[in-house]
Design goal:
This protein is of the alpha+beta class and 339 residues long. It has twelve helices and 19 strands. The strands form five sheets. A six-stranded mixed sheet has the order 3-2-1-9-10-19, with helices on both faces. A five-stranded mixed sheet has the order 13-12-11-17-18, with helices on both faces. Helix 5 packs across helix 6 and helix 5 packs across helix 7.
Length: 339
């Protein structure tokens, strides 16, 4: 129990990083972005400030998103980002070399797990314990993961979609799909390029997805003015993007997510499948906020689908619940490593 007396939890996401401090709650929510001065490798900005620089930096400064598809792509930059987040999260809180619980996608390799551990230790952590993202999301969404009755979580994040069936504190069946929010943004960029001959940036595509995005035809329709660069003239251009446009753009990646949910259900033992039919499918993550998602999944699977109350915070809230209830939930942690 001494391991957790000075502890923080981290939802290290491809799009955003959230930090929970034991006894304080959620203290930090920042984009997982770092701006680096190329020659000196000095950190110029982290989080929101760095994200605002994407696509706008001079040649001497590079804005990195150091995680790709839910795993670390740039080790040194991830360590620097975590160190900066530790400092921001501390604020007036006094802690030195915190003990950290951090989430990883289900099914990542041992090498990818070690990269997360080592980057966290490099950032200044004293010890690291890992928790699988579907378990954390399910706990944060209010599912009773220790019960013998089966439950199902669909967590659509920035880099991965985690679909898992959980029973008696463990994952019985799961798929981790590297198709999620980032791929939806890329699909919107490509659609606008092909249909309107206009190139838009990642930030604009993300705003369109959040503002007028929908995945089912029954969802309300809307229109958004989008600005980009005309590929023929090279000049700034404005188009009116519709909800139907965004839905069509996201069709293929959403089809991959729906097929993954179906495959997971097909491989679920009959007794647990019956439990899921009774209890429904729980959706978490930023992707759960897409208009019409619950209707689409229900139509495709025939199972009632619920959106978590705070889908963006399910993983970090789950980690926080684990930190606050170690006696009953310590079994969901693994791969403890100390420096």
């Amino acid at each position: 129990m001494g391991f957790f007396t000075n502890s923080i939890g981290i939802d290290l996401g491809t799009a955003n990083t959230l930090v929970y401090v034991k006894g304080k709650g959620l203290v930090l929510r920042q984009p997982s972005v770092v701006a680096i001065e190329e020659k000196s490798r000095k950190v110029m900005a982290v989080g929101t400030e760095a994200k605002d620089m994407i696509g706008k930096t001079p040649g001497s400064i590079i804005a990195y998103r150091p995680l790709k598809d839910g795993v670390i792509a740039e080790f040194d930059i991830t360590a620097k980002m975590l160190k900066a987040f530790f400092k921001k999260a501390a604020g007036s809180i006094v802690f030195n070399r915190p003990r950290v619980v951090i989430c990883v996608p289900f099914g990542v390799t041992e090498v990818e797990k070690r990269a997360v551990e080592d980057a966290t230790l490099e950032a200044g952590a004293k010890s690291v314990a890992l928790i699988e993202e579907p378990i954390a999301a399910a706990i944060g969404a209010g599912l009773k993961v220790n019960d013998p009755r089966g439950c199902m979580i669909v967590d659509i994040g920035g880099g991965t979609t985690e679909v898992a069936v959980i029973s008696i504190g463990g994952i019985v069946n799961s798929h981790s799909l590297r198709v999620a929010g980032d791929e939806l943004d890329e699909a919107i960029i490509e659609y606008v390029r092909k249909k309107y001959n206009v190139l838009i940036g990642e930030f604009t595509a993300e705003q369109a997805k959040k503002t007028i995005g929908a995945v089912h035809s029954d969802a309300p329709s809307d229109v958004m003015e989008v600005r980009g660069r005309n590929l023929y003239s090279g000049l700034p251009s404005t188009i009116m993007l519709t909800t139907a446009d965004v839905r069509e753009a996201m069709y293929e990646p959403m089809r991959d997510i729906i097929n993954t949910i179906k495959r997971t259900l097909e491989r679920t033992p009959p007794e647990l499948a019956a439990d899921i039919y009774d209890q429904g499918i729980m959706c978490a993550g930023g992707g759960a906020m897409l208009s019409g998602l619950s209707t689409l999944i229900h139509e495709e699977t025939g199972i009632r689908t619920i959106i978590a109350k705070r889908p963006l915070d399910c993983v970090i809230e789950g980690i926080g619940i684990v930190l606050d209830n170690l006696e009953s939930l310590s079994g969901v942690l693994s791969y403890m490593k100390s420096k």
